């Protein structure tokens, strides 16, 4: 098997684990408060990342005040904020819906970059953002269904998941603002450590120990911490190292597909035409955003020649 093929398989597996976070969050939401679950997730993942740091002999950097503030904001948005809002969102929205919404991350990240950096979007990017928006509208409005056919709070759950995706997009944008970029392993370890620091006090205020916690909720936290957080990180960076940036980005399209399949298989949720149409729009959006990234890479290479 070629190195490129290995990279494709590794990225595909990584995105499959990321898609499963929606199902894990659904299990967690059934028995744990969001900040408690978030703190437990980071508490379980941190020793594993610390062990990898020791094994790889990675060194902690000494960021200046500018980068230290950015890292703290990244942890608040992409680590804590994303996890908390996702758990809250799937309390009301079906996991299949949430999976489609989380798949809009590439388009949302591009939109945030355009708005914040005043970049001029190309036609592929505009098309990707438009398709992602249609995908979210398809599962939220449910054409042909009456309000009695679905939970009245589902739209609120979808909105919370979309807010979680926006925070993750902010994480990506802030990462580009770091003066001294960090190695992936170092940055992931820092995000887990800072995420634990930021979530532990709100978790204590939730006082989750005063009520019984279902085993499936604890199992969901353990899975979230060790499989998507740790294994997903290792799989993604091992795969991305073998591919071009635009090629690796294309595999994010597997995230909503994984979430839909697992929601139907593991949770027994019904996947209707609205979710299939929404997923199709999101997949198209990922493809267009990836084409825009490939175009930008080509432009950079031509400028370097």
UniProtKB/TrEMBL annotation:
The chain crosses the membrane at residues 34-56, 68-92, 98-117, 124-141, 153-173, 185-205, 217-236, 248-267, 273-291. SUPFAM superfamilies: Multidrug resistance efflux transporter EmrE (SSF103481). It is found in: Membrane. Keywords: Membrane, Transmembrane, Transmembrane helix. It is a multi-pass membrane protein. It comes from the Bacteria. Pfam families: EamA. Residues 6-140, 156-290 form the EamA domain. The keyword Transmembrane helix applies. This is DMT family transporter. The lineage of its organism: Bacteria, Pseudomonadati, Pseudomonadota, Betaproteobacteria, Burkholderiales.
């Amino acid at each position: 098997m070629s190195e490129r093929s290995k990279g494709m398989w590794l990225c595909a597996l990584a995105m499959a684990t990321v898609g499963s976070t929606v199902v894990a969050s659904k299990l967690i939401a059934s028995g744990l408060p969001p900040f408690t679950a978030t703190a437990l997730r980071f508490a379980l993942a941190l020793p594993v990342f610390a062990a990898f740091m020791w094994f790889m002999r990675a060194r902690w950097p000494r960021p200046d005040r500018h980068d230290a503030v950015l890292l703290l904001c990244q942890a608040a948005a992409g680590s804590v904020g994303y996890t908390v809002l996702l758990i809250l969102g799937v309390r009301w929205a079906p996991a299949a819906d949430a999976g489609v919404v989380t798949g809009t991350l590439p388009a949302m990240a591009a939109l945030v970059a355009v708005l914040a950096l005043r970049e001029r979007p190309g036609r592929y990017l505009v098309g990707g953002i438009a398709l992602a928006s249609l995908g979210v509208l398809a599962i939220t409005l449910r054409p042909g269904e009456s309000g009695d056919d679905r939970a009245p709070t589902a739209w609120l759950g979808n909105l919370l998941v979309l807010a979680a995706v926006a925070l993750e997009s902010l994480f990506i944008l802030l990462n580009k603002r770091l003066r001294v970029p960090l190695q992936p392993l170092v940055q992931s370890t820092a995000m887990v450590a800072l995420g634990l620091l930021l979530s532990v006090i709100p978790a204590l205020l939730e006082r989750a120990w005063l009520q019984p916690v279902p085993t499936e909720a604890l199992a969901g936290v353990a899975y979230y911490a060790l499989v998507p957080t740790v294994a997903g990180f290792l799989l993604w960076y091992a795969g991305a190292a073998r591919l071009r940036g635009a090629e690796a980005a294309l595999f994010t399209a597997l995230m909503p597909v994984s979430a839909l399949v697992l929601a139907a298989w593991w949770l027994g949720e019904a996947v209707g035409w609205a979710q299939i149409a929404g997923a199709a729009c999101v997949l198209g959006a990922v493809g267009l955003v990836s084409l825009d990234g490939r175009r930008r890479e080509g432009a950079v290479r031509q400028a370097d020649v």
